[in-house]
Amino acid sequence: MILPDVEDFIALTEGAPAAPHFGDFVLGFPAALENTQAALAAGSTAIGNLGQYFTFRIPGWNDDIEATAATVKAIGLIAKQPAPVIVHSNLDDGFAAQFTDLASCFGMILLERSIVTGLANVAMGHCFGHHFSDPVTRFAFQRAIAMIDATPGTVIYGNTISYRGVPAQNFASLGSYLLVDALGQRLFPTGHAINPVPVTENERIPEIDEVVEAQLFAGRLAEHARLYEPLIDFTEIDRIASVLVSAGERFASNVREGLAAVGVDVGDIFEMLLALRRLGARRLEREFGVGLQDSRSQARVPLVPATILTEIHEMAEAALEFATTDQRVALRNCRHNVIVATSDVHEHGKMLIEEILKQLNVESIDGGVSTDAAALAAMATEIRPTAIAISTYNGVALDYYLELRRDLTSRGLDIPILIGGRLNQIPEGSNTSLPVDVGDELAEAGAIVCREASHLLSSLLALPTSRS
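The chain above was modelled as a monomer; its predicted structure follows.
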C-alpha cells in the first residue's frame, strides 16, 4: 500500500473511529522523516517499524547512513510531540527471525528501549509472535514482558508460520495461538492487541469477509478464555520467563559493553543503531549471546531455543521423506555448490532451502536476503556455482528472474536458476495490486521452477555437474 501524500494518510485514518497505527515502512527507511510527518499529521500515536530498520531495505538502495539519519531525525520529531507517541518495533521483522535463542530476542527489547527511550526519551511498544509456535514459550515471552513492565505493547502477532494446510486445518492453529494470547492478556495484561490472522493467509491475500471472520472467531474465543484460567500451572511459564529476563539483560549488557570496547559511542543513538544493523543478528548472537559456545561450531547453544529452527528442520525432513539412498548418494557425487538467496526480505524460504541442502550434504553458499540481482550475478561470477536457488515472496518473481538472467548473460554465465516460494507477480498495467501466478511464465523463460520444497531434490539431480 502506497500513500503518496499526507492527505492519503489522513483519509486512511478517517476510515474508522480508531486510533491509527502505522506499523510498517515508516521508520527505518530513507523517507522516514517525511513518512513520520505524514503519520503524525494524520493523528497517529503509534509509529513503526523500528524492527524493519535492522533487516529490511529498498531494492537497489544500499545507503544505510541515509536510512539511519532519517530514522534518527524521525525519532527526534516524535520526541518533540506535545502528546505521547509510541515507537513501534516488530521483533520478528527485525533480528528475532534470525536468532536461535529467545533470550537474544528478549535482549533486543531491552537494547531498543535503552536506545529509543533511554537516549531519545520516547516510549516504545514491541510486537512479537509470527515465529512463536510453541505455546509455552509464547506464553512465557508475554509473561517476561509483563515482568519488566515493557508496556504498553503494540501487537502480539499471529503465528503465521503455523498455517500450512487448508483453511479448515488453519483454524486449529488460529485457535491455538489466540487462546494463549487472550489468556496472557487476561492474567498479566501488557496492553498488546491480539491478532487473528485470516486462515487463508498462507494461500493468498485474504478477502475482507475472511478478515472479519477471523476477528469474530477471536472475539468469541476471548470470551471462552477465562474458563481455562484454573487449568494453568504457571511453574514452567514463570521459570522460562525469568530465564528470558535475566539472560536478556546479560545479552543487552554484553552488546553495549562489546560495542563500547571497539569505539562505538553507546550514548549516541545514530552510532548504536548503525552498529547493530551492520553487525546483523547472527554475528550479534555469536559474539554477545549468553549460551555456551558449541565446541563443534561457532554457534551458541540457546538457553530458550527459538522454535522456528526446529520447525524448519522438520519441514526439510518432510520434504525429503521419500528421497532414496541412491538419490542421496548420486547427489553427493555430483558435488554441487549452490548460492541461496532471496528476492525480498522473507528469509524462511531461504532457511528451508539451506536446511534441505545440509541434509543432502550439498554445499550451500549464502547469497543474502533481499539481494539485488546485479549483486547476485557478481557473486556468481566470482564463485562459479553449479546453480543459484532463489526464494521469492513479494510479487516480483518474474521480473527478478529476468533481471538476474540478463545480468548473468552479460557476464557470459549460463548458470541454472532454481526458483520457489510464492511464484507471483503484480501484472503491469493492472487496476489491482493483487499478484497473479507466473510459474508457467518462469518455466518458459528458462527458470527451474520448484513449486514445493520437495522438488529441490529432483531439480538438483537433473543439473549438469560440471562447473564453468
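Residues 398 and 441 are 7 Å apart (CA to CA).
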